[in-house]
Write a structure and sequence with these properties.
This is D-hydantoinase/dihydropyrimidinase. The protein is an alpha/beta fold. The chain contains 16 helices and 21 strands. The strands form 5 sheets. It has a 7-stranded parallel beta sheet with strand order 8-11-12-13-14-15-16. Strand 20 and strand 21 form a beta hairpin. Bound molecules: dihydropyrimidine-2,4(1H,3H)-dione and zinc ion (3 copies).
């Protein structure tokens, strides 16, 4: 059974050109003019782009005394409707601390529900011999990324010695460490201070997590990664301080990647102040929304290439769950949604405004992360042999974002009322049409697949700082003790 996507303009991270795409089963068989097939999909007047990859979601994740309410079923349906065909979700060890059990648990939860493809990042929330051994098993199970929380003291946070040990293990295994970079000790102290002063509402959340704590942790993680001889991926970069650290590291030749979120690019700290409690609490996430200056820095990073990926950190709680924090902002479950709206909001506020080219849009929503996560060109590309994860992106199909029309099961949307100028006409996941605009699509739960991602030893070989640090420097025995040959 073949399908031809007809008369569209293919947009890749490299270039745009007019051609048809012949899909045979799950993959792209041919790209060219006037292709014939069993079925036709009309792309006249539309762009044909690689399906979006959202590398940062927390579906059904137990967190802060509750569980994220967006399910694997609703989350992947929302993704398909918004043009995203692969999610990379955070797999969190349970009370037994086992990574392998956590992976099996994530498979058990996700497999019957997902309607688009998925991968996992594994969270490392402590350090011991079992974790050391299980990291290798996790890699064999198709996970090449390990996430470290530098915040959430007393819960998920790792100390520097633990992070360094894990980063060195990543280097050995050809895996990429990720960090949630906020100084958890300072955040805890500020939370205590503001609560003691009676500043207990959601605005206290923003005050307790200033950009400086993110900048400090980003710098620290970069230095630790450099010492361990491993690349680094910084999730939800929200401010200039963190972006600046990444820019500086890259300029020195370090492989450090930065991921801003669509929320931080388009929503600012005004969402927390002089608002009713529910409104502000629904927008509590970490890091918090920042001032416009920080947003400007993030856009500049995407334009210049110092930041490479736009994600969502989709971690969605209902209003009822947010109200656990009525006793004080530190108890408001942290997280917002965005998986359904990432592409449309980025297109409208990025491409329509001239900040990004359509090719850059494809790069930051799909291609770059496919390369960073080592699933390129199976994902993130429109080339022969790639998975047919394709979006027919209609730049003239505008809509207003509303709760009533969303596929997410959450009772609000942080982008509610946003006018977006574009959306998918069709979304294909490995050749299946999982979303067709105006046709009441309901993708099949369970049709999505787990996509294993192999390790990448070659990128690590070039980084040998740890070897350098552990090899004593030879100092010349000069009478004046002047080192020679350095
Ligand atoms: N931040 C959030 O807002 N939610 C999930 C985890 C995180 O780091
Ligand atoms: Zn500490
Ligand atoms: Zn985080
Ligand atoms: Zn997250």
């Amino acid at each position: 059974m073949t399908k031809v996507i007809k008369n569209g303009t293919i947009v890749t991270a490299d270039r745009s050109y007019k051609a048809d795409v012949l899909v045979d089963g799950e993959t792209i068989r041919e790209i060219g003019p006037d292709l014939k097939g069993d079925e036709y999909i009309d792309a006249e007047g539309a762009y044909v782009i690689p399906g979006g990859i959202d590398p940062h979601t927390h579906l059904e994740m137990p967190f802060m005394g509750t569980t994220a309410a967006e399910t694997f079923e609703s989350g992947t349906f929302a993704a398909a409707a918004g043009g995203t065909t692969m999610l990379v979700d955070f797999c969190l060890p349970g009370p037994d601390g086992s990574l392998v059990n956590a992976i099996n648990d994530w498979h058990r939860k996700s497999a019957p529900q997902i309607s688009v493809d998925i991968g996992y990042h594994m969270a490392v929330t402590g350090w011991n011999e079992t974790i050391f051994a299980e990291m290798e098993q996790a890699v064999k199970m198709g996970i090449n990324t390990f996430k470290h929380f530098m915040a959430y003291k007393g819960a998920l946070m790792v100390e520097d010695d633990e992070m360094f040990a894990s980063f060195k293990r990543c280097a050995e295994l050809g895996a990429l460490p990720l960090v949630h970079a906020e100084n958890g000790d300072i955040v805890a102290a500020l939370q205590e201070k503001y609560m003691a002063e009676g500043l207990t509402g959601p605005e206290g959340h923003a005050y307790s997590r200033p950009p400086e704590v993110e900048g400090e942790a980003t710098n620290r993680a970069i230095m630790i990664a450099d010492a361990a001889g491993v690349p680094l991926y910084v999730v939800h970069v929200s401010c200039e301080q963190s972006h600046e650290a990444i820019r500086r590291a890259r300029q020195k030749g370090m492989r450090v990647y930065g991921e801003p979120l669509i929320q931080h690019l388009t929503l600012d700290e005004g969402e927390y102040f002089n608002r009713d409690w529910d409104y502000a609490a629904r927008r509590v996430m970490s890091p918090p929304f920042r001032s416009k200056d920080h947003q400007q820095s993030l856009w500049a990073g995407l334009q210049s290439g110092s930041l490479q990926v736009v994600a969502t950190d989709h971690c969605a709680f209902t209003t009822e769950q947010k109200r656990f924090g009525l006793k004080g902002f530190p108890s408001i479950p942290n997280g917002t949604g965005g998986v359904e709206d990432r592409l449309a909001v980025l297109w409208t506020q990025g491409v329509e405004t001239g900040r990004l080219t359509p090719e850059e849009f494809v790069a930051v929503t799909s291609t770059n992360i496919a390369k960073i996560l080592n699933v390129y060109p199976r994902k993130g590309a429109i080339v022969e042999g790639a998975d047919a994860d394709i979006v027919v992106w209609d730049p003239k199909l505008s809509r207003t974002i509303t709760v009533a029309s969303q596929k997410s099961i959450i009772d609000y949307n942080v982008f509610e009322g946003f006018e977006v100028s574009a959306q998918p006409r069709y979304t294909l996941s490995r050749g299946d049409v999982v979303w067709a605009h105006g046709q009441n699509s309901q993708p099949q739960p369970g049709r999505g697949k787990f996509i294993p991602r192999p390790p990448f030893p070659s990128a690590h070989k070039a980084l040998s700082k740890w070897k350098e640090l552990t090899t004593p420097r030879k100092i010349a025995r000069d009478p004046q003790n002047i080192p020679s040959g350095v």
